[in-house]
Every structure is written in C-alpha cells, then in structure tokens.
Amino acid sequence: MEKTTKSNFSFQLVSKDGSARAGLVTTPHGAVETPVFMPVGTQATVKSLTPAQLDEIGVQIILSNTYHLYLRPGADVIQEFGGLHNFMNWRKPILTDSGGFQVFSLGNLRQISDVGVVFKSHIDGSIHQFTPESAIAIQEKLGADIIMAFDECPEPHDRKYNEQALARTHRWAERCLQAKSRADQALFGIVQGGIFPDLRSQSAEFLTSLDFPGYSIGGLSVGESKEDMFAVIEVVTAILPETKPRYLMGVGTPYDLIEGIRRGIDMFDCVLPTRLARHHAAQTLHGRINLAKAEFARDHSPIDPECGCYTCANFSRAYLRHLIIAKEMLASTLISIHNIFTLTSLMQTLRKSILEERFETTAAQLLAGLEKTL
Amino acid sequence: MEKTTKSNFSFQLVSKDGSARAGLVTTPHGAVETPVFMPVGTQATVKSLTPAQLDEIGVQIILSNTYHLYLRPGADVIQEFGGLHNFMNWRKPILTDSGGFQVFSLGNLRQISDVGVVFKSHIDGSIHQFTPESAIAIQEKLGADIIMAFDECPEPHDRKYNEQALARTHRWAERCLQAKSRADQALFGIVQGGIFPDLRSQSAEFLTSLDFPGYSIGGLSVGESKEDMFAVIEVVTAILPETKPRYLMGVGTPYDLIEGIRRGIDMFDCVLPTRLARHHAAQTLHGRINLAKAEFARDHSPIDPECGCYTCANFSRAYLRHLIIAKEMLASTLISIHNIFTLTSLMQTLRKSILEERFETTAAQLLAGLEKTL
Q1: N or C: where does chain B have the smaller number of CB atoms within 10 Å of the terminal CB?
Q2: Taking the complete model, does pTM exceed 0.95, yes or no?
Q3: Are A74 and B322 a contacting pair, CB within 8 Å?
Q4: Is residue A2 over pLDDT 60?
C-alpha cells in the first residue's frame, strides 16, 4: 500500500480488514506498530512507573501534556536537557498534545479570543497565554516526535458554539502549520465539530486540504453518547486520507478501543489505566475488578489468570489488596503495570487479527467477554 | 575458619581484618555475603519498589516486621500462601523481627508482664498480646529464614529498668528456644542491657551459653550517644562467638555501618534509605542531598556521578526535583533505588577491602568523605 513521508516521519498502511487498519508509524525515535494505545505521562512520568517498566510492558509510545510541562518544570528547562526524551529518559517516540484541551477545561479560569487563550495556572493562579504560535513553539522546545495543532474544544452538543469554534480551530490550524519550524517533528491537525456530522465532515475536509502528516479526532469521550461518538468517527474516517494515521484523543476503555479500531482509528491515549490503578481498580478484558474488596483478602489467583504481565506472573489478588489496605505505593505501581499491559496486549491481539484478516471474529469474541461498554 | 551449621542455616567466617569480618550466611533461600545491609519491607513491601527492582539493586536479604504483618494482613493469611516469600514474591532470604521493638514503642498503648506484652493496635485500637511463644509462632507462620527472639526494649539510660528488663529478656530467650518448632528457620538471640557495659557483657555471655545460631544487638540507635553505642558494640562483640553472625538492629547511616563493621558487626537493617527517599533526601557517601531545593531545578548531573545505580545512570537532579515538586510517586521510587544501592554497594566495597586486608585504609578514606556522622 501507499507510504507518506514527511521529513523523518512516515506512516505505512500495512494491512486492512474491513475498516480496521494495521500500520507502521516511523519517527526519529523508532517505529510504532498500530493500532496502538499510548499511556499518558502528564508531568513527564507515567505515574508510578519507570521507563524500564514501560519498556518491559511493551509500551511503544507515550503521550505527555504541554500545558502541565509548560507550567512545571517549564519548556525552557526541558529544552536545556535536549528535550523530553532526555529529560525523562524515555528513548522511544513521544507525542505531546497542544495544551488546548487542558486550558479549555479550566472553565472560568480562561478567556478565548482569535489571538489565543488567556488562562490562570491551576498551580499558582498566575496568568498565561497560549496562542497557536506559542503552542507550537513550546512543543518544539519539548521535542516530541508527534505534536498537535492548537484547537478549541467546545461542549459537544452546542451547535452554535461548535460552528464558531470550528472556524477558529481551522484558522488556528493554518497558523500552527505556519509557525512550525522543526523538520523532525510531525504536526497533526485536529478534527473538531462536536456531535454534528456536517461540522465534522467540514472539518475533516478542510484539514485534509492542509495536508497534515496525521490527523487527530478531538472533542470526543467528553460526555456524548457512544452512538454520537461512533457516528462522528465513521463520518470523519470516511473523509481522512487512508495514507495518514488517525488518532482518537482521550479514549481508552477496551470497548472504545475495539470499536474505534473497527472504524479505522490507529492511535489512542488515555489516563484511565493509571488513574484506575490509583483507585485500586484492575482493568481486564472481562471487566474491572475493585481490588480493595474484602472478598480478595485470601484470593490466591492473580488479577487475570490469562494475563502475561509482571504483576499477574508474580502477585496474588490477596497481596495487591493487602498493599491497598496498608496504603502502600507499590499497589499503584503493580496495578498500573497490569492495566497498561492489558491495553497494550489488546492492541497486539487486534493488530494480529487484522494482519490475518479475522478482525471481526476476534473483535466479536472480545466484545462478548467485556462487561458492558467499559 | 570454622563453620557453624544448624539445620539449613550456616555461617562461614571467610576472612578477618582487625575486628572487621567478611562472612557468608547460608539459608534455605540462598546465601548472603556479609557485611550486609538489609532494606526494610515493613508491610511485606520495601516501600515503592518491586522485588525485581530490589534484585537489580543487588539486595541479598530484606527484613520484615512481625508486628505489622500480624496486624495486617495477619499471619494466618501469609501462612496460607506458604509464607512471606511467596506472598510478596521475594525469593531470596528474609529476616523477621519479633515485634518486641514495635510493641514497646507503643508507649501507653501497652502493658508488660512476665507473660508477655498486652498492646493496642495502632490501626484500630483492638487489644492483642505478644508472648515469647506467640512471637515465635507468628514468625513460624511468616516463614522467614532468620527470626528473632522476643525481647524487652527499655530506654537505654535507665539502669534499674534495664536490669529488670534484661532478666526478663533472658527468660524470654529461653522460652523462645523452647517454643521454636521449625527446623528451617534460624532463631537469633538479642543482646540487651542499655548503655551499661556490665549488663551488656552479662547479656552476651548468657545468650552465648544458649548457643543461638546468630546474635542480634538490640536497643541501640535509639537516642544514646555514638560513644555509648560503639562502646556497647565493642563489649558485646568481644564476647560473642566468632563463628556466629552478629546483627546490629536498626542501624543504617554510612558512618554507623562503617564503624559497626570495624567493630565486628556482620548484619544491619534500617528504614532510613526508603524513609529519606520519601522525604526527598538522597544519601551519598559525601552527605545527604535535599533534592527539593530550587538550586537543582536545572542541574544536569545525577545524584552522584560516581554511583552505578539505575537512577544515577538515567536521571538528572533536575528531573528528580521536578518529580518531587510535581508530587509524583516516581520520585520516591527513583530515590529509594539510589539510597539502597548506595548502602548495598558500600557493603560490597567494605567486604572487598576486608578480603584484601585493607579495611582500615578503605574505612578511613570513606569516613573522611562523609559529612559529619550521617
């Protein structure tokens, strides 16, 4: 199939099965087999895990947040270290978001204009401004392999606001392309438009005309229905070029991953596996398990007998429950290892099924085993 | 030199240099080269570290606390799992204390008699009793390779109390020997007697007459002066048999480790490396570093350029400070790895110097580099 190259970045569509795709993203820090789940390292650390542990899990690429790193430790500090890879000692690919989603999530702490967004730091209340130009400049200092355009993230059901915001997001996308100066980073455009198929179509078409090396779908998994989310994904992936990777932002339940891949998505990220771990919940392909429950006090079995992760190979539910009850940090570490491994190996399973042209069978079996749509 | 064997446990005195000793402790879970520093896994976890990380650091043996495990998750639970090694997935030797020190530290929450100690749980206020017999029974359920006699731990400067307590500790030592039923665990006697050389002599002589496979020195590093501590160690090690290991309980600063080894100590434990890590302090052989300080915000160097640990090989002081300021759990993990590695490799350095008969030179160089007596 076709191959698109832009500087050091390329995407190869290796195989298709229905709309599901197996691909290969190549970056200056190595290749990523898609579909891929990216764990989130908000503050230059995937919470409670060392880079060595992420490597052992089989993580290929992580995401980090521009908003948080800009505030702390500051983009200049990270630039001084030669970028985020050196700073946090993660030698594989990194993707940064633009800060857009975070500053729009600040609610009353921010003000929007065509110039950009003025916002108050959630840490100390200090005043800052992100513009398309500054969001790119900061991401160039951070030095991730894949960076994001600065976009506006409106409430998905508000038609009028979405129309206005989309026009601005498109103007900002052009300014981001203009502002970009590093050849070794791939800038993705972000499709917006809320739950409205016509706005989403318009956005996908406009951004495709700008010829980004990859496309994100933003503004989903923020409270809309599953039907609305999947309808939007179908509209958008039908328009986006086959030769570019598609990244569905902020999505990370097994159900949504499977349904996203079925509709042609290649990349996903979510804080869910590490956040669940800190709240004592283990993610399996048969539902979530609250390991704090008394019923696990003497349970000799691992979280998931079918799982091949370090945690399941070595520790019982009883031990994990003991760590939780005793408020030991190791609980978060061990459950995070399991949760990320679960999603990482789910991606490998689905990729293999695409290569072997049996995606629908595999997906149906997996979906039947899931508890509801989690 | 001589070798003492008691069931599966043995101690071989490999070499002496002055009073400093290089030895080999053999247990059912493998051998331990001495002198050795044992990290503390109070609640069946060395805080924030996986067993795989402890292995990589080079840790040979860990300590765990009977008092804490008895209360949570309960000795029966751990016995059901075939003991602590299985429960926490640590495959190398384990030493458990008797709970004595912890229950005596409870102050007003406990009552002492010849029978034992009645105490209130620090967790829920429930009432419990430890006796010499129950302390052994619990440790047999936990299944450590080396277990401790149940002793009374008085304030070290109170002569009258120490006389009474010592008589009781000696009676309890005999009861512990009587109560012991497992052949695959080595029971150490604990020398007490506060800061009083004559009481310490009396205790060392009495316990030696009971022929334990190893001896602990308890009740030190609890507020007495360095002079008193070292004087007691000298009195005791002059009496204890050369053919048995000597374990100085609760000691873990580089200064005290070096001075302890110089006086014939083989084994040490302390919570200090992991506790310091949780309070942002890195231990080096040139003093402690508070990594939270602003001066490290852009410091590219590792904690210690001469250190060979995972943390120093891969992370800067600036990154560690960032994790601390951002309240990220990974800070504790990475600093704990460094702190335990520092003490573990200090022990290896000193063992080598003993084998090569240059202990005093090595000790003098190390002591000259230390900041004060930390």
Answers
A1: N
A2: yes
A3: no
A4: no
